[in-house]
Amino acid sequence: VHALEQHSGLSGVLDLPVETLREKARAVGATVTPSSPAGYCLDKLFAHHVEPTLQEPTFVEDHPRSTTPLAKRHRSLPGRVERFELFYRGYELGNAYTELNDPDEQLARFEEQRATRGEETYALDEDFVEALRYGMPPTTGVGMGVERLLMSLLDVASIKDVVLF
């Protein structure tokens, strides 16, 4: 959030109305619909204003809750989740978060998402919520973009130069 505010000139981004975030995201060329949620707009603004500046290996952590509906709430930062991303040369190499394993909170987040998306609503994943009710231990993992890692190791600018198919 701090980096987004610093590089975009916006202040209080987590308190901005979603329509303002949509307008700001549209202004940087993002495809935005009348029902695009705040988290989507924040991601687009971050990608435009901040990612290109992250040339050295950089961890971005403690993302806004609205950007990651499957991540556990941060233990000490309200409105944030336990998540980090690793950036290098302006693109994301890895994404990680602690999985939300509270079925009631997950159901509430799914319902909140459905309410804000309007016509872009997806079916509620009741099977997933039910599986959480049976119990899921604390879990986390890192999704690594191997092709992006290769891009940085081989010093190439296009992903087409490292994808084999």
TrEMBL record:
Gene3D superfamilies linked: Bira Bifunctional Protein, Domain 2 (3.30.930.10)
User: What InterPro entries does its record include?
Assistant: Aa-tRNA-synt_II, aa-tRNA-synth_II, aa-tRNA-synth_II/BPL/LPL
Could you tell me one molecular function GO term of this UniProt entry?
lysine-tRNA ligase activity
Q: Locate the Aminoacyl-transfer RNA synthetases class-II family profile domain: which residues?
A: 1-165
A Gene Ontology cellular component where this protein is annotated is: cytosol
Q: Name one Pfam family in it.
A: tRNA-synt_2
What keywords appear on the UniProt entry?
A: Aminoacyl-tRNA synthetase, ATP-binding, Ligase, Nucleotide-binding
- Report what the protein is called: Lysyl-tRNA synthetase
Q: State which residue ranges cross the membrane.
A: none
Q: Which GO biological process entries does UniProt record here?
A: lysyl-tRNA aminoacylation
